[in-house]
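[agent] plan:
  1. take the single chain provided in the ticket
  2. run structure prediction with default settings
  3. attach structure tokens to the ticket
  4. add a short note for the reviewer (M.T.)
[agent] executing step 1
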Amino acid sequence: MNTDEKERQALVQALVAELSAAEPLHLDYELIEAYVDGRCDLIDQEIVSSHAAMCPMCGREVRDLQTFAAQHRRPRRNWLPLAAAAIAACLILAILPLLRPSATVLSLHDGNREVRLTKDGQLSGISGLTIDDERRIANALRSGMVGIPPNAAQLAKTGEALRSTFPATPSAFEPLAPIGCIIVSDRPTFEWTAVPGALYRVEVFSDHFRPVADSGPIDETRWTTPQPLARGTTYVWQVTALLDTVETTSPAPPAPEARFAVLDAANAQEIARLELVQPRSHLALGVAYASAGVTAEAERELQELANENRGSADAQRLLQSLRSH
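[agent] step 2 finished; step 3 output follows
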């Protein structure tokens, strides 16, 4: 025991002895209260505890006040952890719906994958898509419809008008393709019905009937332009059969013109990218082709999607919506 501790104990004992000798003096209520509340220093604590042990009256006062304090004292709380816990609970409740998987409302087999659309419009099961790709596909699945641009719809109407002018007989001389459509390749292949023994000549024209390509005399019923045509441009074409000294051109007035358009560069690049990253996704390609107005390829892809999902009303709705344009 060090010197300071010995001196402190001696001082306490002397004070206690002094208080005991000075009967009937007792402890002050304020000192007892400070002792019970833990507000007095070490010396006062020892004075109160020692005197209460020797004085029945003061001991009873200390015990009564301790009992009263224990019954009415409210525990001190640190509100910071409680507030933090409340905030954390609110954040969890707010984030929980985002973390919980949303219910799947539609799923289709697509190549070697299964594509799902959730109730909140999220697409899963297919990768390598841009935000625009995902939005178009999700909208198509949700609505059951694929749309085509206005210029493609207008071309389709002219193609239908032209086909309706030719009799459905094997002997009819008529252009076959491309008619009333947008094509991806800028070097189109032209096809027409045959006239036995004839030579043929294909001519392609741009705006104002300006010639841009000419096959010259050929003996085949198909011909591909050796030079690329301008993208984003609409063209008109004719084929002429030369048999002996007789020339027959089709289509010829008053029949509607055989029109087609070459896909613009931006859409052609997007489709080329999609063909590279998702070559086996009939769903992604079908929706992309339809959005670009390339209806023949779109129908081919959506037909394949329907074949992979036999009995699926969702796949059939997509195909039928394209054919209804």
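[agent] step 4 note for reviewer: Residues 252 and 260 are 16 Å apart (CA to CA).
[agent] ticket updated
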